[in-house]
């Protein structure tokens, strides 16, 4: 196989959660550009833009509007796709609730854990079972710098993203020998809805930029290459790894 062909996803089907905005939108578009058909999942919002982007590339787009924090709806989704061969799973959907730890309510904690951790565990094991029957598959988690650091005023988010880093390794240990690659991508500070409040805080924005060697916030398109690499045969010998897409933040 040539180097360029090893990045092809022609004939593959990718399921992407949180597909219709930000990093998820860019990753979904990139997978379609590389040849994959798309199953998109999101709790809400408009699917029209991502559907148009995928279909303009000649790829199919099927979407499910599912509140991933609702376990019953999640199991309904799993049942709905039971007969579909999914080659690539991108666990990207996530939410963030900001409050100092002493004010971080049980409701905040439960909501973040349900979407950012519980749903990803449940969806991964269901799809991995089918992948193992196929003898191959790619599972990619969107983790975070807070898989390694503590953050400020986001204890639930930090706990969930730290746990995802553990799941990447735990799943890889069990499934690598069965042909399923499990890896993670850790975004740094990226221009998305989740970071809008930080970017609008002049003092916090400046302190963040001073720490980033690249001297800029990341943008969703920075994830196109990494997601295609991890979803393609080019990464077949990668298991339990974490790609940092952070402008050098963790190297500082």
Description:
The protein has 252 residues and is an alpha/beta fold. It has a single domain (5-251), classed as Rossmann fold, CATH 3.40.50.720. 41% of the residues lie in helices and 15% in strands. The chain contains eight helices and seven strands. The protein has a seven-stranded parallel beta sheet with strand order 3-2-1-4-5-6-7, sandwiched between helices. Helix 1 (22-33) crosses helix 8, helix 3 (71-80) runs parallel beside helix 4 and helix 4 packs parallel to helix 5 (155-175). The longest helix has 29 residues, at 106-134. It is globular, with a radius of gyration of 17 Å.
Low-confidence spans: none
- In total, the number of domains comes to 1
- SS-derived structural category: alpha/beta
CATH topology: Rossmann fold
Question: Roughly what percent helix?
Answer: 40-55%
Mean pLDDT equals 96
Topology order in helix (H) and strand (E) letters? EHEHEHEHEHEHHHE
Strand order, main sheet: write it out. Answer: 3-2-1-4-5-6-7
Radius of gyration: 17 Å
**CATH architectural group:** 3-Layer(aba) Sandwich
